[in-house]
């Protein structure tokens, strides 16, 4: 066993958690940029933040740097950036992402967070499922596409329709993946 491996594994301040902290800071930049009408900058900032989510997960698994803090911080920051971006986007006039959609996403995330707390509080594992990962991909695609739509003065009808399709697919997967988690928890034996 390497001398350097022990302190690194025990430390909560590692590369994955630092990336999650950066993603949290970037999320507030995204919200500000959306509110101030800087849609292209918001999209770029959002895409950079979203890419750190993949990188921190890969890094944590690859270099065995999964920590209790990271298991809480990573999904928390994911929820902040997605929910916050969708709320900010829904507030833009004529947005294809409606307030009820942002509410649906926030509600699903609150439900899944509650289920995670319950399962992990009992010592169980509540890792992300494949549908939950695809839900995140579609939600990120929807946010980026809508921000690009806002940035462009003239957009083809094909792009508008494609954006609306991705937004609705993200909503469907939001509901379906939430149901998957509820069913998984309800089927597990108690205790």
Question: If you had to describe this structure to a student in words, what would you say it looks like?
Answer:
With 191 residues, the chain is an all-alpha fold. It has a single domain, classed as Up-down Bundle (Four Helix Bundle (Hemerythrin (Met), subunit A)). The chain contains seven helices and no strands. The chain has helices at 5-10, 15-35, 39-62, 68-90, 99-121, 130-151, 157-187. Helix 2 (15-35) packs antiparallel against helix 3 and helix 4 runs parallel beside helix 6. The longest helix has 31 residues, at 157-187. The protein is globular and about 55 Å long. Mean pLDDT is 91; it is low at 1-10.
Overall 3D geometry? globular
Structure classification: mainly alpha
CATH structural class: Mainly Alpha
Instruction: Detail the poorly predicted runs.
Output: 1-10
How many distinct domains?
1
* C-alpha end-to-end distance: 36 Å
Q: Which fold name is given in CATH as the topology?
A: Four Helix Bundle (Hemerythrin (Met), subunit A)
Biggest beta sheet attributes: none
What can be said about this structure in brief?
The protein is mostly helical.
Topology, pairings included?
Blueprint: H1 5-10, H2 15-35, H3 39-62, H4 68-90, H5 99-121, H6 130-151, H7 157-187
Main attributes?
single chain, 191 residues, mainly alpha, Four Helix Bundle (Hemerythrin (Met), subunit A), 7 helices, globular, disordered N terminus
